[in-house]
Amino acid sequence: MSLSASARDALASFEQAAGWEQRARLLMQWGERLEPLEDGQKSEANRVHGCESQVWLVAEQHDGQWRFKGASDARIIRGLLALLLIRVEGLSSAELAQLDLPGWFNQLGLGRQLSPSRSNGLNAVLQRMAQLAAGA
Amino acid sequence: MFQPSPWRADFPAIAALQRQHQTYLDSAATTQKPQVLLDTLSHYYSHGAANVHRAQHLPGALATQAFERSREKVAAWLNASDTQQIVFTHGATSALNLLAYGLEGLFEAGDEIAVSALEHHANLLPWQQLARRRGLKLVVLPLDSRGLIDLELALQLIGPRTRLLAVSQLSNVLGAWQPLAPLLAHAHAQGCLTVVDGAQGVVHDRQDMQQLGCDFYVFSSHKLYGPDGVGVLYGRTQALARLHHWQFGGEMVQVADYHDASFRSAPLGFEAGTPPIAGVIGLGASLDYLTGLDAQAVAEHEAGLHRYLLRGLSDREGIRLLGQPNLALASFVVEGVHNADLAHLLTEQGIAVRAGHHCAMPLLKGLGLDGAIRVSLGLYNDSDDLQRFFEALDQALELLR
To answer: Which CATH architecture has domain B8-25+294-400?
Structure first.
């Protein structure tokens, strides 16, 4: 599946990142770009449980295309969320179901963030996203 | 000044972790194991495994002998007056659940159970759920500003309606010895049963059951440099006699018919099914190892490292310590920094510490926090481990601030 312009952008910058420090800086920068949620959307119903930090995920569908929004009170997970959302932006349910998201994070050099013992919540976010998309 | 650990080389995993650039500072979660334990497990499995308390054959006799020798070693380690006061379980959590189910029949609606506000979930949830099953009142003993159970309030809250007191000896988050002696004495004067969660306490000082004077004491092997899957329940003989059988099957039975059965008393009556045989034998080996150490030297080593840890944390700006830890560990948060972010960046640098709620969500909530970072020490740690932690902490904070 083809990458959006911002996804290509992210891939290029992460591919150039040397070492954990630069990746961490990039993650935090991408996190800052995350479109903020309205206060009302930071509700219990939108909470993703299983994260060390508070994470919210909101799903909307327009003309068969998914649009997700997310937020967190921790910066690293905010960055991971941002990188996730730019990858799934505008996909249909069928495209989303086929998408290899672990592969996407591996490409970014962030595959380790998906290991089962990581409690940063990225796994929980992916599960929640799949549930939201399947329920629609 | 460099403070080496004279016991570091006894734990092969420490060198293996170091080769993977990992600094292990999470011993309050579980410990690395001494070589002598690995040898014992390997010897047991390579010389003939067998079930215990069942077979007449030689392997069965040898396994049973080794298994029961471990019971003696645990009894000696705790200075229990009788070997039969030691029940093996599958962990500290399962020992506490055994108590909550085994004692259930002693409670009537309206009775009270007292726990402290700092309990690990393992010593909170079994009692909370028991209270819900039987219509009991769960009384939570509050903490003072140092993170100790507020003795004055506790002595008022533990009264004639209190049937059981369950408290931890050393908090896994706050790292401070709790004032057990006056609490236990008061509880006994009220005629109430006492349960001490020694999961952390048993690791950092020799415990003497005859001196401590609780009815039940619980700990897990894996935090005491032993194998996982093994827990210990100590009970005073009269207290064990009040326990109802909980899990059924295996050699805990005396006589069984289709519609009726009778059961053994403690300890075997509470060791249903095949016990963790290799693990129990392994725990015996770890206790032999620990018994052979110079206890004074270990205590001084741990105290020295702990002082170094506290000094390093207090030297850095914006760090808030949780409570006033006396030993073994320190939990902290950093002003303006999310603990999940800090944990992430420490992990990136190969620092194995614990982040989050530490299985004590109500305690963290009570402190107004949703998480904290915990650094915890084992006898194999040296000051270089802490030095690496501080360097990583500085790097992480520089990035985050």
So the answer is: Alpha-Beta Complex (3.90)
Q: What is the pTM of this model?
A: 0.94
CB atoms inside a 10 Å sphere around CB B239: 19
Annotation marks residue B359 as catalytic: yes
Collect all residues with Cβ–Cβ distance below 8 Å to B315 and sequence separation of at least 6.
Answer: none
Quick check: A120 and B340 CB within 8 A?
Answer: yes
Q: In this structure, are residues A107 and A99 in contact, taking their beta carbons and an 8 Å threshold?
A: no
CA–CA separation, B326 and A74 (whole Å): 31
What distance, in Å, lies between the first and last C-alpha atoms of chain A? 22
User: What are the Cα distances from residue B216, in Å, to A75, B98, B170, B196, B271?
Assistant: 45, 11, 16, 6, 16
Backbone angles phi, psi at B281, to 5 degrees: -65, -40
Beta B261-263 vs B253-256: how paired, if at all? Answer: antiparallel
Q: Which of B199, B278, B359, B372 is flagged as catalytic?
A: B359
| Token digits of residue B344 | 């992430």
CA–CA separation, A31 vs A29, rounded Å?
Answer: 5
Interface of A with B (CB under 8 A): 20-21, 24-25, 28, 51-54, 73-77, 119-120
pLDDT digits (tens, 9 = 90+) for A32-82: 999 999 989 999 999 998 777 889 999 988 888 888 999 999 999 999 999
Distances (CA, A) of B141 to B100, B178, B187, B305: 19, 12, 13, 31
| CA–CA gap between residue A44 and residue B208 (Å, rounded) | 48
Residue B8 binned pLDDT confidence (cut-offs 50, 70, 90): very high
Domains along chain A with CATH numbers: 5-135 (3.90.1010.10)
Query: Chain B: nearest CA to A112, how far in angstroms?
Result: 10
Q: Where are the domains of chain B?
A: 8-25+294-400, 38-291
Among the partner residues B341, B395, B399, nearest to A74 by beta-carbon distance: B341
CA distance B164 to chain A (A): 33
**Is 3.40.50.1460 the CATH number for B38-291?**
no
Q: Look at residues B201, B157, B153, B197 and name the one whose alpha carbon lies nearest to residue B176.
A: B201
Helix axes A19-32, B339-348, angle to 10 degrees: 150
pLDDT in tens, B311-328: 999 999 999 999 999 999
Query: What's the mean pLDDT in A100-128?
Result: 83
